[in-house]
Design brief:
CATH class of the largest domain: Alpha Beta
Low-confidence stretches: 20-28
CATH architecture of the largest domain: Alpha-Beta Barrel
Largest sheet: 6 strands, parallel
CATH superfamily of the largest domain: Glycosidases
Helix content: 25-40%
Structural class: alpha/beta
Number of helices: 10
Order of helices and strands: EEEEHEHEEHEHEHHEHHEHHEEEEEEEE
Strand content: 15-25%
Length: 400
């Protein structure tokens, strides 16, 4: 189901602060009544893990989560640091697992439609089935995407399989229902560091045109690849040059609104993301069949080009082509796999989206008015396309 707006709160955590006041007594939750009421062992962040064996802990966290849903009508809750809640020192924490299972069951029973999302980093299997989560926050995708962005173009082939092919295969065949996110955690490097903001991830590029082309390609990769959805943290949609954390630390608003809706590359990429999101909603091929609508068409790591299908709707099929290199092609052949049961049904294909469009800050010189389809005597069927550097083009195939 597509919603006009969705409000999600990061509302359930597995740890609690243990701050002390200048007077020497604890001002944190775990000793607010003078006893160690909720806390268990110390965490890697200097905080304390909740003790889920205690009934008072479970009741407190149940009440907190349900309060937000009951009073503020949030559409979803993200559960933070689930990996550390449910497994430490190679041992499952059964009390935490049962807590999550019970809380998610209560939420689904009394607040149908509310999403329960797990942020989990260690690959714990089948969170959707074992603990009643609806979705899993794909931390691995975010890390891989940023690391790939940082990689100079001449070195990207070395990381092609791990950062691109394996990520696609994992997204298609993973048992958990993944969403691809660019979150607040990705840019929270403290008040004096900007190394993880998107603009700095492409600092190796020679000019702003290449930097923003690479970032437009990143967003298309995020939104088009198989997943259960995508989320972009505020500020990333305008590629602001200072993180939200740094801006707040300096007493500014978390968003640099002066960049919004401007004629600069920052404003143009905001328009680009708006149009890309609209395209995603408009074409059910991206979400109607979820991951099952995905199939690989072509990949050639030396050129950093990959293409895949995203499902069929009303005899229309979507094909997505990414070029992760800074080399463009006026004519590039994409052979369609012979194993594709629908390949002979393709009557024609048109370009419906191009990240290199002039209105988004691109060159506007690699447009495909009509896709050339070559048929070699019953052998290969080939799409011949103009493929811009650092770009994504999206095609709609008309099937008969």
């Amino acid at each position: 189901m597509i919603m006009d707006s969705l409000v999600i709160i990061m509302g359930v955590t597995g740890k609690v602060s243990r701050e002390e006041s200048r007077l020497g007594y604890s001002i944190s939750l775990h000793e607010y009544d003078g006893t160690n009421l909720y806390a268990g062992t110390e965490s890697q962040w200097g905080t304390l893990y909740f003790d889920f064996d205690k009934e008072e802990t479970r009741r407190f966290l149940f009440a907190s989560a349900l309060y937000y849903l009951d009073r503020f009508h949030f559409d979803g809750i993200r559960f933070d640091a689930v990996s550390q809640m449910i497994r430490r020192n190679q041992t499952d924490i059964q009390s935490a697992i049962s807590f999550l299972h019970e809380l998610n069951h209560i939420i689904h029973t009394h607040y149908p439609g509310v999403l329960c999302i797990a942020e989990e980093t260690e690959g714990y299997p089948n969170l959707n089935r074992t603990m009643n989560f609806d979705l899993k926050w794909n931390i691995g995708w975010s890390n891989d995407a940023r690391n790939f962005l940082r990689t100079p173009y001449t070195e990207r082939f070395q990381h092609w399989k791990q950062k691109i092919l394996d990520v696609l295969n994992c997204a298609r065949w993973n048992d958990d229902k993944m969403i691809c996110t660019l979150s607040h955690d990705d840019t929270n490097d403290g008040p004096f560091s900007s190394k993880n903001i998107l603009l700095n991830c492409v600092s190796h590029a020679r000019n702003d045109m290449d930097k923003f082309a690479d970032l437009r390609n990143l967003f298309a990769w995020q939104i088009c690849m198989p997943s259960r959805g995508h989320m972009i943290h505020m500020g990333d949609e305008i590629v602001q040059p200072m993180s939200w954390f740094q801006r707040c630390f300096r007493g500014k608003s978390s968003m640099d609104w002066s960049l919004s809706n401007s004629t600069s590359l920052h404003g143009k990429i905001q328009e680009y993301i708006r149009d890309l999101n609209h395209l995603y909603i408009l074409y059910p091929q991206f979400w109607e069949y979820e991951e099952e609508g995905y199939s690989l068409i072509y990949e050639y790591g030396e050129n950093l080009v990959i293409a895949y299908h995203r499902g069929i709707f009303n005899n229309r099929r979507i094909a997505v082509i990414h070029n992760f290199s800074n080399r463009g092609y006026t004519s590039y052949d994409i052979p369609l796999p012979r194993s594709d049961p629908n390949v002979e049904r393709i009557r024609d294909a048109i370009e419906i989206f191009n990240t290199d469009d002039l209105k988004y800050g691109g060159s506007g010189t690699f447009q495909n008015q009509q896709i050339e389809i070559k048929r070699n005597n019953g052998e290969d069927i080939i799409f011949t396309v103009a493929l811009p550097p650092l770009s994504t083009i999206i095609l709609e195939e008309n099937l008969i």
